[in-house]
Structures
1.
Amino acid sequence: MADLRQIALDVWQHQQDGQAMPKITARYELSADEAYQVQALVMEEQLRRGDRLVGWKAGLTSAAKQKSMGVEEPIYGRLLASQELAVPELYLSGKVHPRVEPEIAFVLKKRLGGATVTPRDVWLATEYVVPAFEIIDSRYENFSFTLADVVADNASGCQFYTATQAYSPYFAPLDEIGVVVRKNGDVVQTGAAAAVLGHPVESIVTLVRMLDRVGAAIEPGMVVLTGGITEAVHLGAGDRIDLSFDRMGTIALAVRP
Ligand code: OOG
Ligand code: MG
């Protein structure tokens, strides 16, 4: 029987020092439920040290991401205050092998919970939507993991940024928002938000249902990342990444050593 607290401490340590670790599942048989318990235990440690839960992230919500990571179902992770970037600048020091992905974020004004949630409930609870990016950085060697591994490692969560300009959730059909990602001027990824479970709102529905199983909900004021629209882009020192969202502007990310 695996000691979930010990595993959580191990994961937390590697999240702190930016050193890659072998997969947990190479040593233990970890179920998905146990992996989510590990994720919660890591968060407890972070909260004890003064951090704050500010939202949730859905991950592996697009077929492209599921295929490239070899994990065929959506997962979720926690967003902490310490992960939020105030400006779109990433420092590589302390990271293992970070990548960036374009996402649409929702910010809620009402509590959203329960197993029977519908897209209508999500719209009613949404204050605004905003273009965002997530920096993922798996703590596992070679960015390689099983479902249980990646869940225990907070779904590879590392940092996130939401753009300055927010939008009404009704300003456009969100699934039709196209995205272009450029790296140092070259187009490296293109996609549309429909890649995220058909429509980003479905990502919130899926997330709320998963949270309901552990008695959790999205609280008012929280931010939710709905999942990468394209495959994640590798980052190196000096890179400049432009993430352009159709009708929602461009975020320019600067990568520093
Ligand atoms: C897992 C996290 C995926 C997303 O938006 O799909 C994720 C990973 O690919 O390491 O955050
Ligand atoms: Mg993501």
2.
Amino acid sequence: MAAIVGREPRVAVAAIVGPGAERVGAMKVLRTVAEVRAALGGARRAGRVVGLIPTMGAFHEGHLSLMRRAREECGAVVVSLFVNPSQFTEAGDLAVYPRDELRDAMLAAEVGVDHLFAPRHDEIYPPGFVTMVSTSGVATTLEGAHRGHGHFDAVTTIVTKLFNIVSPDVAYFGRKDIQQAHVIERVARDLNLAVRIAVCPTVREPDGLAMSSRNAYLTGDERAAAPVVHAALLVGRMAIDAGERDPARVRDLMADLIAA
Ligand code: AMP
């Protein structure tokens, strides 16, 4: 988060011209499923590769790196921006989650994104919505155990919906959320979804902390201590590279560093 503080988007034009015609620079802002399908029709007929980056906004360099990679690899780049309430297991976390759609739109336009899909809540969850995509196995450990199983069910449901709405050839996810990426790869395989999942490197602050919208919640002391997580990962990797094969030993080395 620190890297985007004070980093203002450089796209100068934010022309809002009425329903179905919102634009920020050259980028179209789409609100409905019908608008997305209409907007991508031309790209599909022209045989262009469609890339999708699902996000919850509050863009930082981590998000922008996914968009740049999609811009390099795809003929049409779609970013979705939707703060998905059902994947927040704490109401307080949802209430304070950072939101600034215009700033996000300008950053995405600056990177060369073609379409920003920023739907209203009811467009995604109309009254009567009851269907979920639920994954067991990889979704039940680590973050799934910590936040509760409902978290990944909510993620897999929204991502499957976005895949059905956009029909991307490639969808880009960050290694920062490695378990999420594995869960989504599992869903794509299990449900025969015709999308390639691209998992992209973690973008970090200069001191090693992975960029995250939630880093803004850290107090000064917590922020100062946070890079130890990355340092511990590096120590674990060094031990494995040096031949350590006992997972408990690797875990102890990392835990000792964090405790110190
Ligand atoms: P979010 O808006 O937090 O849901 O993140 C949207 C996408 O950006 C997810 O695929 C994340 O894994 C990815 N992402 C978030 N932070 C980073 C980061 N620091 N480096 C790389 N990818 C990231």
3.
Amino acid sequence: MSVRGNEPAGPTRVLISSEALHVRVTELGGAIARDYANDDPLLVGILKGALVFMADLIRAIPIAFTTDTIGVSSYGDGIQSSGRVELTCDLAASVEGRHVLIIDDIVDTGRTIAYVKRKVEMRGPRSVRLCVLLGKRERREVAVDVDYLGFSIPDVYAVGYGLDYAGRYRNLPHIAMLEKI
Ligand code: IMP
Ligand code: MG
């Protein structure tokens, strides 16, 4: 597969198939359902990368919960993080007294999810945990404990299943590695 226009790269190698994603997301949903069975948690997805993962994950959690989203940006259009995280769209729900589970697509340096966790913690939740589909372990700059991790991946740029490069490829049903063409 190649891309048209001035795009420098295209996703070619499948890192995680849609079947493997389905199996793992179902397992994560089962674990979350067991752990939060009587907690009526608030599941907070980080826009926009977590959207596809979250859409599948919530259908694998057969307990009572509510959802919300929070928008942050750190990457701009490149593959290098700006290192600065900005709030682009705040939560609509109150987190006070709630068991909050923050959901994101990928942890790279850890800055984004650490920022969101801090924002939530300042508002009086009963608990805050993290659920992330992909983790690039050797890239961490900020210490974060991920309570529910889908897959550990090497230091490659991943796209698909919600993850983008400059806004593209979120619609791939699998996770692919972005390669130079
Ligand atoms: P962090 O703040 O460095 O942990 O970066 C986390 C955010 O950067 C994620 O929520 C993604 O939106 C984005 N990101 C980091 N690595 C990748 C990648 O390999 N592919 C796509 N997006 C990524
Ligand atoms: Mg993201």
